[in-house]
Design brief:
There is one protein chain. The protein has about 375 residues and is an alpha+beta fold. The protein has three domains: about 90 residues, Rossmann fold (3-Layer(aba) Sandwich), CATH 3.40.50.20; about 55 residues, ATP-grasp fold, A domain (Dna Ligase, domain 1, 2-Layer Sandwich), CATH 3.30.1490.20; about 200 residues, 2-Layer Sandwich (D-amino Acid Aminotransferase, Chain A, domain 1), CATH 3.30.470.20. It is about 25% helix and about 30% strand. β4, α3 and β5 form a beta-alpha-beta unit.
Length: about 375
């Protein structure tokens, strides 16, 4: 294989903020990066060596893009898998592998994978039609999820009782037991082609209930060691069973009885790992590159208490982005701002994130709350 630090051309499907942060790390390894995205002004545009405008779901577009690189990776799952399968057959290295992307694109297949491999998850049922949903006899309340194309909280519907069924999704979906959870947690795991596997320490997440996006994340978690150990072991088991090459984010619930249940998977760098840039010895983005280039995986230990705050567009504002209060938060020690290069804001759009690090956990939390209160994206 060509050397990862020189003449190898890496293609990324998707030009959003995850790709942007991946490129920032790839620059350190002197990797040539080519990006495909439908948005002419995608965040990756100004950082990559070559930017191609085109559909991620069109076979010919993805295939032709992939033919011009040595290795292909993703920063979003909604891509044309058939093209990636053909590229693999023709010798292009595709990581994560196309079979894994196909599995994770379909939440129904994900759930069946959990069940078949003894991965703990909520009770569920696959639904193919509105009639089947009404006749399911699944106990209320429950969550309905579209099998395909749900993302960042979209494609999720809470069914409280029978009166909610009229507004339920009519497309193929799955329904799952509503979990009375104590905490939402996540573990990012990496695996390289040699089979080396490493996890990042488990993190705790808090979601914005209005849009179901991660709003607040903290590491290290103060939950009992046994919870950390079990969560990381589950993530390792999934990575090893899939034989994935690259990064995998495993989102989980800790229920009121102390049981861990896997929610969903993301085969790419993930919002629950952004704090690793400043908070860990190696970041999730470097770890992904190490994994797909089959290099030794890095040390994932926490360097400090690290809290990540998502910077979302304020409700009621749409247009050119103005970052109100940024000069105030930059006066605080240990505050690191990451803006994603999106010129236009709209309500709840991910415009950036801020990581706060401090040796004192309570001070870190206090600063994070100040950042949330102070930094507003308006227009």
């Amino acid at each position: 294989m060509k050397t990862f630090y020189g003449d190898l051309k890496l293609g990324i499907l998707g030009g959003g903020q995850l790709g942007r942060m991946l490129i920032q790390q790839a620059i350190n390894y002197n990797v040539t990066v080519k990006v495909l995205d439908p948005d002419r002004e995608a965040p990756c545009k100004k950082l990559c060596d070559e930017f191609v405008v085109g559909s991620l779901s069109d076979y010919e577009t993805v295939y032709n893009f992939g033919k011009k690189v040595d290795m292909l990776t993703i920063e979003i799952e909604k891509v044309n898998v058939e093209a990636m399968e053909q590229l693999e057959k023709e010798g292009v290295l595709v990581y994560p592998q196309s079979r894994i992307i196909r599995l994770i694109q379909d939440k129904g297949l994900q759930k069946q994978f959990f069940k078949e491999n003894g991965i703990p998850t909520a009770d569920f049922k696959i639904i193919s039609s509105p009639e089947e949903l009404k006749e399911s006899n699944f106990p209320f309340p429950y969550i309905q999820k579209l099998r395909r194309d749900g993302y960042d909280g979209r494609g999720v519907y809470k069914v409280v009782n029978e009166s909610y069924l009229d507004k339920a999704f009519i497309e193929p979906s799955l329904i799952e037991r509503l979990i009375d959870f104590e905490k939402e947690i996540a573990v990012i795991v990496a695996r390289n082609e040699n089979g080396e596997v490493k996890t990042f320490p488990m993190v705790e997440m808090e979601f914005n209930p209005e849009v179901n996006l991660v709003e607040f994340l903290i590491q290290p978690s103060t939950l009992p060691f046994e919870v950390h150990q079990e969560a990381e072991n589950i993530a390792k088991k999934i990575a090893e069973t899939l034989k994935i090459v690259g990064i995998l984010a495993v989102e989980m619930f800790l229920d009121k009885n102390g049981k861990i249940l896997v929610n969903e998977l993301a085969p790419r760098p993930h919002n629950s790992g952004h704090q690793s840039i400043e908070g860990n010895v190696v970041s999730q983005f470097e770890q992904h590159l190490r994994a797909i280039f089959n290099q030794p995986l890095g040390d994932t230990a926490c360097l400090n208490n690290a809290i990540m705050v998502n910077v979302l567009g304020e409700a009621g504002y749409e247009g050119p982005a103005i970052y109100k209060g940024i000069e105030k938060i930059l006066k605080c020690a240990g505050v690191y701002v990451h803006l994603y290069g999106k010129a236009l804001t709209k309500p709840f759009r991910k415009m950036g994130h801020v990581t706060i690090v401090d040796a004192d956990r309570e001070k870190a939390i206090e600063k994070a709350k100040y950042v949330q209160k102070t930094l507003k994206v308006i227009s």
